[in-house]
Amino acid sequence: MKIIIKNKSELPIYEQIEQQMKTQILEGKIAENEQLPSVRQLAKDLKISVITTTRAYNDLAEEGFIVSVAGKGYFAAARDNELMRERMLYEMEDGLEKAVTNGRNAGLSDEEIVDALRKFMEE
């Protein structure tokens, strides 16, 4: 797992951690059921507050991306997790909405947008 903190980012550090971990989980770079660094270890590795890493982990757990196992630590959630599935569906719909808006702003017809999507899916 690789997390890069940018001090000049407009996002708070905990959100930077959350976004990067979500992306890595959704892309399979963090495997389902893979154990994550402890809150303290991640804070030490990133040279940030334990409070910040705790906030990130709590938010990720609440959204269904990770699970806490008492006495063992945090693990990436299984991909068949219903919360994970809902989040992936939301991310897909959000991306499609942006793509359609961008296509229309570029003057493409709906048919041209659908054709572009089909070509993208074939790759």
Secondary-structure blueprint of this entry?
Blueprint: H1 13-26, H2 39-46, H3 50-62, E1 66-69, E2 73-76, H4 82-105, H5 110-122
Describe the structure.
The chain has 123 residues and is mainly alpha-helical. The protein is 59% helix and 7% strand. It is built from five helices and two strands. It has a two-stranded antiparallel ribbon. β1 and β2 form a beta hairpin. The longest helix is centred in the C-terminal third of the chain and has 24 residues. It starts with 12 loop residues before the first helix and ends with a helix. 18% of the residues are buried.
Which spans of ≥5 residues are poorly predicted at pLDDT below 50?
A: none
- Which class of secondary structure composition applies to the elements? mainly alpha
Radius of gyration: 18 Å
SS strand fraction: 5-15%
The largest pleated sheet is described as: 2 strands, antiparallel
Percent of residues in helices: 55-70%
What form results from the Cα inertia axes? Answer: elongated
Our count of helices gives: 5
Strand order of the largest sheet: 1-2
Order of helices and strands: HHHEEHH
On the 0 to 100 scale, the average pLDDT is 91
Key phrases:
123 residues, mainly alpha, two-stranded antiparallel ribbon, 59% helix, elongated
Quick recap of the structure?
This protein is elongated. With 123 residues, it is mostly helical. The two termini are 27 Å apart.
